[in-house]
Amino acid sequence: MKTNATASPLKITRNRLYTLIALGAFVVLAIVADLFFDAFTLRVFNLCAIYIVLALSLNMLNGFTGLFSLGHAGFMAVGAYVCALLTMSPQLKDMNFFLMPMVPWLRNVTIPFLPAIIIGGLAAAFVGFLIGAPVLRLRDDYLAIATLGFGEIIRVLITNAQPITNGAQGLKGLPRFSTTFTVWIAAALVTLFMVLLMRSSYGRAMKAVRDDELAAEAMGINVFKVKVTSFTVSSFLAGIGGALLGHMITTIDPKMFTFMLTFNILLIVVLGGIGSISGSVIAAVVVTILMEVLRFLDEPLNFIVFKTAAMPGLRMVVFSILLMVVVIYRQRGLMGNKEFSWDMLTGLFVRKGRKGGTNV
Predict the structure, then answer these.
(1) Per-residue DSSP letter, 40
(2) How far apart are CA 246 and CA 182, in angstroms?
(3) Tens-digit pLDDT profile for residues 107-153
(4) Quick count: other Cβ atoms within 10 Å of Cβ 80?
(5) Phi, psi at residue 172, to the nearest 5°?
(6) Sign of the C-alpha dihedral, residues 107, 113, 119, 121?
């Protein structure tokens, strides 16, 4: 049996090599996808990256801080609208605001995408702070209901603020700034941020609040401050994800940011594992692809024995059943609260190939 002292340097070198190879392979995949994938396939590929950002933002609350929030779509809407309004040209704004003129102080404002998306995230974080400060004194179901209500309030306000948001007509013709490399770099940065955060003392404080608030408070942790900070940072990441989504599909409207969008993100978090960064990343890719693969269920089905009419929403019924099965039989999801590692992968193959004996 090898000791940790002698095995660790070899494992670290091997894991770093595997990581570099995996990163290089993915960069090649991204280049190939951007050059050779058709428009639909490339859109699904890029949507995976955006859902990684959104899943990690919600997992920060649900998985790592233990706060059950259902209002994420509202923060996405704030980030998407703020970023869109800051990047649109005056001519494009005039084309969109044909029913009611836009407010003069915003018409001639046009800034580059990078500062615009950061401002959009900060605006979402500010709204999250304003909502979180009073709401986070609630717990469990009451917190979920309150955040769901605030998410709907944000959507209604956007619908009725026509001189600023163009109301129900939404914003169309947005610049396509969310390219393949933009969205995947954003997903990589958010993932790296989450990994570093969870390894820091503040990340451990978040997990302590999740596990036992009374014990965390007894240890000197300011529970309310941790909750508000987590809620604010999560709102910032949701705003970033919403801005990326808007500039990928080049159009946004209030109907995009309903509870169903939050449900999609929650589905990814639960299936991947509440409290697992790796699980959120894997589930975001799998669920996003399955949502497109199973799209045929919403259309008329032609079986050998009988035919069915179009049943819009049947695809989401399948995902709802899958969510119920996971909640009943595997509440921890795909990864639980564990993280992917090369040792886990190599250990899996070792266990499959070993017929007897004990692990040392």
Answers:
(1) H
(2) 13
(3) 888 999 999 999 999 999 999 999 988 888 877 778 888 888 888 89
(4) 30
(5) -125, 155
(6) positive
The phi, psi pair for 234, rounded to 5°, reads -60, -40
SS3 content of the chain, % helix, strand, coil (to 5): 75, 0, 25
Measured CA to CA, the distance from residue 231 to residue 125 in angstroms comes to 8
| CA atoms lying within 13 Å on the CB side of residue 193 | 15
Which pTM value belongs to this model?
0.88
pLDDT of the residue at 211: 86
Query: Region 212-224: what's the mean pLDDT?
Result: 88
- Euclidean distance between CA atoms 34 and 46, whole angstroms: 10
Distance in angstroms (rounded) separating the CA atoms of residues 260 and 268: 13
Residue 235 is inside which H or E element, if any? Answer: helix 223-249
Check if the beta carbon of residue 34 is closer than 8 Å to that of residue 180.
yes
Q: Buried (b) or exposed (e) across 273-310, using 16+ Cβ within 10 A?
A: bbbbbbbbbbbbbebbeebeeeeebeeeeeeeeeeeee
Pairwise CA distance, residues 351 & 268, whole Å: 29
DSSP string, 93-126: HHHH-SSSPPPHHHHT----HHHHHHHHHHHHHH
